[in-house]
Amino acid sequence: MLPTNNTPSPEPPSPSTQITTSSLPPFQKSVLLLLLQIPPGRFTTYAILATHLSTSPRAVGNALRRNPFAPQVPCHRVVATGGLLGGFKGKVGGRDGADHPRLAEKRALLLSEGVKTWGREGRVTGRAYDEFV
């Protein structure tokens, strides 16, 4: 029998540590760090994030589609201004892409956190989170 090591395994680094120590571009780091402020059961929009960062919603979306830390860094909590799911993992939703399997995954993650959706497109309901610091 091999001797056992009673030393506990080190805790994995927190998502914020993973982001800040990564080789990601500074803008992408700033977008991903904001996502950590969105509580489970809440959502925000690409436009709200863009306003906070003084950039465009498209720039935010481009940063999110390359999120290497999902779902721990919750890009699934970001939706389009009208409540449509938008995109997820590089795939865009909307009327034509509403049934894409990746958007079904995004919808399932949101539902598991308590976000309500309606309609075939899975529009989210409620007030978007905008209390970023």
Summarize the structure.
Its EC number is 2.1.1.63. With 133 residues, the protein is an alpha+beta fold.
List keywords for this structure.
133 residues, alpha+beta, Arc Repressor Mutant, subunit A, two-stranded parallel ribbon, two-stranded antiparallel sheet, 6 strands, globular, EC 2.1.1.63, DNA repair
Describe this structure in words.
With 133 residues, the protein is an alpha+beta fold. The chain contains five helices and six strands; from the N terminus they run ααβααβββαββ. The strands form three sheets. The chain has a two-stranded parallel ribbon. A two-stranded antiparallel ribbon has the order 3-4. A two-stranded antiparallel ribbon has the order 5-6. Helix 3 (46-53) packs across helix 4. The chain is globular. The termini are far apart. Belongs to the MGMT family. This is Methylated-DNA--protein-cysteine methyltransferase. Residues 26-115 form the Methylated-DNA-[protein]-cysteine S-methyltransferase DNA binding domain. Its EC number is 2.1.1.63.
End-to-end separation: 54 Å
Mean pLDDT: 89
Helix fraction, binned, reads 25-40%
Residue ranges: pLDDT <50 for 5 or more in a row? none
Order of helices and strands: HHEHHEEEHEE
Give the CATH class. Answer: Mainly Alpha
| Total individual domains | 1
Total number of strands: 6
Number of helices: 5
CATH architecture: Orthogonal Bundle
Large-scale geometry: globular
Describe the largest sheet.
2 strands, parallel
CATH-assigned fold name: Arc Repressor Mutant, subunit A
- Beta-strand content estimate: 5-15%
Strand order of the largest sheet: 1-2
